[in-house]
Amino acid sequence: MSDTVGGGNGWGSSADARRGEPVVGIVLVSHSAAVAEAVAALAVGLAGGGAPAPVAAAGGTADGGFGTSAELISAAAARVDRGAGVAVLTDLGSAVLTVKALLLEGDELPDGTRLVDAPFLEGAVGAVVTASTGADLDAVAAAATEAYGYRKQ
Fold first, then answer.
1. Are 25 and 55 spatial neighbours (Cβ–Cβ below 8 Å)?
2. Taking the CB of residue 137, how many other CB atoms lie within 10 A of it?
3. Mean of the per-residue pLDDT values for the chain?
């Protein structure tokens, strides 16, 4: 199951729709639906104040198993597309390959969709926080990528 955070499910608000301003959407692709949904909820929660950036979890396969699903990813990207681009963050190798294949197809993902090379959890937090400020796709991708430099010691 992949829900959109930032509208409709109680994890955030749909302030972007009320304002009518384009905002970057975020799609979190994991091999596990539970992981994708938990990371989405955490990122939105840490963004504070009901993040206006739409976030969707695209985890697991359509039948609820572990893996990735091109259909779930495409549907999630369509749900969060608000006209300013879509940043897609992935967990493991085949998720990256699935997103790259969708991007090569050319018509499976909204225009302005970008695969962002970033750590999954920390990058998701950076992307959601930055997108929630109204930043453009370049800034959202940069914030997610900066998470590679976070030191824990």
1. yes
2. 20
3. 88
Residue 143, number of CB atoms within 10 A of its CB? 22
Strand order in the sheet with 55-59: 4-5, 55-59, 25-30, 86-90, 113-115
Task: Report the C-alpha gap between 66 and 9 in whole angstroms.
Answer: 23
What residues are paired with 59 via a beta bridge? 30
CA distance 153 to 146: 16
What pLDDT digit, counting tens, does each position of 75-86 carry? 999 999 999 999
Tens-digit pLDDT profile for residues 19-40 = 578 999 999 999 999 999 999 9
Torsion of CA 68, 73, 75, 79, to 10 degrees: 140
Rg (CA), the chain: 14
